[in-house]
Amino acid sequence: MKKIIYNLIVLMCMAAVFAACKEDTNELGPVPSASDVEFTFAPSAENDNILNFSSPSGFLKIWDFGNGKSAQGDNVKGTYPVKGTYTVTLTVYTSGGSAKTSKEVVIAETDPTLLDIPVYNKLTGGNSKPEGKTWVVDAATKGHFGLGPKASTGPEWYQAGANEKAGSGLYNDKYTFKLAGFAYVMNTAGDVYMNGGQAANFPGSTPSPVGDFMAPYTAPTNLTWSVTDDNKFLSISSGGFIGYFTGVNTYEIMSLTDDEMFLKYYDNVNGEFAWYIRLIREGYVRPTEPVVPKEYKIEDISQNFDGVGSANFTGDSQGSIVKYDNPAPVPINTSAKVGKYVKADGQGGEYANIQLPLKYRMDLRARNVFKLKVFIPSYNDYTKVGAEDWQSYKTLQKQVSMKLQNSLLGGNAYTTQAEVKQTGLETDKWLELTFDFSAFADREDFDKVVIQIGGEAIFTGGIFFLDDVELLPE
């Protein structure tokens, strides 16, 4: 009996729900008509770039101003700091549905006083600085200028040391961004610094005393700047640029604060290159941070690729190292596993290496000799460089270099502080090599070990094998 009563109650509830739905449907209002979505607009009394929009039909209204902003109501205001044509859309909602209409709004002139965009304010100083903000290269900071592969997010191949490019024309340039008229003032102090591939485009260019080229140059006076809508890219009009010139004038904004700017840009001669430049606001003094010196000592360094080892080498952007089956397990090296060292093919690969950063400064007074085993296959392709260079490249491929570096001075293939090379090596056999750094035993600044197989200044890539890397005991 209880079950019957329960079922009756459920049926009564469902009937009530259906009735309610039917009743609601009967009470729906009409869909908005064309007249309901009509609207007018006119400049406000205070500013031609602030428009008053009106559509007093009494229904719910949502406005899309076409500039990334929206509003709700019968009478609303839209602000348009930048000249251009904008599509304004009004959507009207009733209980019976919705309808929309759009109209174009043309803004004749940009009004910088209305611009309150974070990236603009950081770049120019905003409305509070009508004279604009001036930026200079952050010359005193390591890594203020550098190079990496196109897909990188930082200068993996090369980082300039503090003031390394003094005398090139790079550090005396000033770059001023103004909000009014989006004006860009490039003060070159008479000369600029550039990639060698651009030298022919600058009359009077000469080799720079610190590499690449410099040339006399006075920038045009009518330059402007712009930032993409997503705030990711900064562009300078024709004739203007920022920092070291590589033939482009568009820069990816990697980071931007009120005081610092970090930009990435490309090279119109070599499409695989990405250049980096760091700038600071003129007059900005970077807060000094206490430098905690690394401890001066020596520890075991070893890696045989069969076990864990104390040295975990990692590749740079163009070189890699992985554990791999021994290609030639012969008496000099019967290990099951060795390190497979792959050197990238193409521009940038000439500086490929593997690295071991240390948490201390090396004390080389008692322990300063390294040993390792290497296998150089003869199947590496040297012929891609052309017949005239084949022999010299083939010779360079038969080379192993070990370097000790100071990371505070750049610590990459461009800034080697101590190097020992083994050249003219045999192929297709395991070789045991010794690298003696006793000549540098009085140095106290090394905190990185770099191994480079195949030589520098060649672009043919290659596959090599490495094993039993060890700093010999005292």
TrEMBL record:
Residues 1-19 form the signal peptide. Keywords: Signal. SMART domains: PKD (SM00089). Gene3D superfamilies: Galactose-binding domain-like, Immunoglobulins. InterPro entries: Ig-like_fold, PKD/Chitinase_dom, PKD_dom, PKD_dom_sf. PROSITE patterns: PKD (PS50093), PROKAR_LIPOPROTEIN (PS51257). It comes from the Bacteria. Pfam families: PKD_4. Residues 63-114 form the PKD domain. This is PKD domain-containing protein. The lineage of its organism: Bacteria, Pseudomonadati, Bacteroidota, Cytophagia, Cytophagales.
